[in-house]
DNA sequence: GTCAATAGTTTGTCCTGACATATTGACGTC
DNA sequence: GACGTCAATATGTCAGGACAAACTATTGAC
């Protein structure tokens, strides 16, 4: 039964429950709260922090939703296996490939200001016709194409250049511009490649492609990126580890 | 502003919030609450049902988590696009479709005892040649095929019959046999349909299929199911919501 | 040793109440 | 028409409290 040092800053604009969740998550990632360990009960934790129990519950539930904690009535709250959640985390593919030593390279196929059609507008929470930046890239790893990435960002958020985008991942550039990505909603699907897509990705006609559509939000809940990504199914899978919330 | 007829049964063992969520989901699926429509505010809804506001909020949040509703502070709660979007949680497709009112049916194509080859053995953490149960099913929803499901279970864990499997989901039957699924490791990918697969799923030649391979573990960490599932990409996507660990 | 009953522990559900924050529309001014 | 202000509206956060349900440990009977 480990008790990490937790504290909350009531003058911060960050909600109390989220401050607690962040610290617990930190403790899990650093190993201070190792896999398999049991948290103190929520009443004790709330008391320790001077918070109400529902607020403490909200913090814990947040991490349960992330799959980092599992709760059992009558037993307690346990840290579950610290899994590699590589492709469904809010990270950029560039960063992931770099971390995996796979030497990613990027070709910027398109970088232009345009206006949002209905679909893009819907996802970014803006009016159709509003200015957006459209970015299209081909990402390669180990000398061969891996993914076709199309992204839309609200105009004016960040200044992107082809040179920057070929050197670093999009999220790194957003971060450098002061944009903090906080949450994302993602949909994973599959489709057959169009001829252009098959050619760009060096796959056969109608090859199956893995798709991911993502809307990423900053800490205020403002949509800052809408992405539509195509991956070669022959080279790419998503690994997802989960824990039941109904155990 | 549509107001579906909602009611709660306080004598039911089903939590109030879940009863409400189910009814709202039903209204969404039947079109009574169409995409784009706005719910009454949570205070009014709670009052209408004689519930507390947090309970009403919990019901709504449940559907927000399912991707059926979107909330905006100061504005309200809106119904979003209605499509099969499964979360990447450790639930069975059967349960999810049932909850979504989509009337799943199952055809058991194969149910037999066999021995584990290298791949199956590896995933189940057993020796090659060990006895396993091989289960192959076609799952339909709303009268058309949705997925081809192949599962392997260690022999002796649970006694399955074709009849049982056509009536209920696999996880329900495991649960009824006292097996509690706790965690899972999943890989999501895509492939082109073989001719047999295309025919079974009523898709065209070489149609893109979404794949998921899963190993599910019980609370002791023992692998209790290895599944290889194929879904029609035209009818099926995965939804994943994430938060950054570096916010 | 086995089993059932009971007590203790912890999470799950639900309630009432209050304040904060974001959004939208109305209105007035320039 | 553009802009600013303000009120109304709706969600978001937080608090304190109570009871229920599930799980584990303990105890006593056999």
TrEMBL record, chains A, B:
<dbReference type="InterPro" id="IPR011663">
    <property type="entry name" value="UTRA"/>
</dbReference>
<protein>
    <submittedName>
        <fullName>GntR family transcriptional regulator</fullName>
    </submittedName>
</protein>
<feature type="domain" description="HTH gntR-type">
    <location>
        <begin position="14"/>
        <end position="82"/>
    </location>
</feature>
<dbReference type="InterPro" id="IPR050679">
    <property type="entry name" value="Bact_HTH_transcr_reg"/>
</dbReference>
<dbReference type="Pfam" id="PF07702">
    <property type="entry name" value="UTRA"/>
</dbReference>
<dbReference type="Pfam" id="PF00392">
    <property type="entry name" value="GntR"/>
</dbReference>
<keyword id="KW-0805">Transcription regulation</keyword>
<dbReference type="InterPro" id="IPR036390">
    <property type="entry name" value="WH_DNA-bd_sf"/>
</dbReference>
<keyword id="KW-0238">DNA-binding</keyword>
<dbReference type="InterPro" id="IPR028978">
    <property type="entry name" value="Chorismate_lyase_/UTRA_dom_sf"/>
</dbReference>
<dbReference type="InterPro" id="IPR036388">
    <property type="entry name" value="WH-like_DNA-bd_sf"/>
</dbReference>
<keyword id="KW-0804">Transcription</keyword>
<dbReference type="InterPro" id="IPR000524">
    <property type="entry name" value="Tscrpt_reg_HTH_GntR"/>
</dbReference>
